[in-house]
TrEMBL record:
GO biological process annotation, one example: TOR signaling
UniProt similarity note: Belongs to the IGBP1/TAP42 family.
Organism from which the protein derives: Rhamnella rubrinervis
Segments of skewed composition (Low complexity): 167-177
Basic and acidic residues bias spans: 354-367, 378-393
Protein name as catalogued: PP2A regulatory subunit TAP46
Residue ranges, annotated region (Disordered): 159-191, 354-405
GO cellular component, as recorded: cytosol
GO molecular function: protein phosphatase 2A binding
Amino acid sequence: MGGCKVEDLPLPALFEQARKIHLLVTESGASSDQEVVRKGCEALEKCEEMISKLGLFSSNETKDDISTTNLKYLLVPFYLGELTEKVAEDDRIHVVKVSQAKLKEFFSFCESMELVPEEELEASTQGGSNSVTDRRALKIARFKRQRAAESKLLEIKERKERRGRSSKASALSTPVEAGEEDVPDDDGEEEREAWLTTISLAICKAFDLLELLKKEEEMLSAMKERQSKEGDKEFSRDVLDDRAKRAEAWHRDAAARVQYTKPVQPITCATFAQDVLEGRAKASDAHEHKQQPIIFGPASLVGGGLTSERERMAAQVFQPSYRLPTMSIEEAGLKEMDMMNKWQERNLKLMEEANSAWHKDSRKIGPSEEEDEDDDAAQEKARAFDDWKDDNPRGAGNKKLTPTG
């Protein structure tokens, strides 16, 4: 773990190192080694800075919107809160308050991701139930969820171990065909289930730890108030001035410590963000978000300006067969959004004109003058035809052709 500096590690490696330190301190009882605790806190703070810089999480997302590879980073404030509680300092109240702030930050993120159970949300919104029966029922339900999460994680671990042993046995008994050496197991859903269960277990532990820290803060505040009332003379003027300076420094640097709520300059280039995640680049490196078209050709001509037709043709000798992009994805999206806004504004304007002008049409219901003239001519023609039919009844012209006519 001590081979590389914290600043040089990518986010996945840095999180894995911090997680190992957290397991070592919380489960193995290595909290007495303050150097290990300090390194864990430093690694987790760097993880918070990188997560905020990369903008992995948003307030309008849910757990279904987060990818499986990014779910584990929700545990960073919980790990930092537990490790901060293990820090040994003279001002214990300060340590307790910092740990509580990180745990509350973890709760807020889990609540926005819809990961906190409903009974815990109701209890937190009501400020805690005063009834002993309600508190006991809440603790029992939390304990059952914790046991269920632990058994589920154990089951997933045993399932992975059995699958690994069976794959090794089948690999030894069956020859591997060409092209099948690097085929990975399809365990994405299992990994997502494991991380969601780990987050559920962390929520249960965080609620218990937060209650203990609140009680400890109340006890320490009561002891401090009693000492001040009794007129304890052990505190000199220098000690009080030093504590006042530390309190002022804490309030002054509070915005820098809470990295999740600190507005930072986001990374808008998806390619550069992927490079930072995989360790090929650092978040502090300078980069260009725009994708400029690549010009192929001799370096002497590409670097300088093309002044003649001969130089322009020489620079285009080694051009690719496909058309190069002229704008980045972000610029194309903004341009398309502008076109859609103009199209919607035009449709809205046309709709308003249609809705406001339909009743203003001054159409005449009666016939026009030309239609009146046509009707008079038709009536005269019909009367003349009727008169002719009266003078010439039907079959009158055929009477001479009949024998009886």
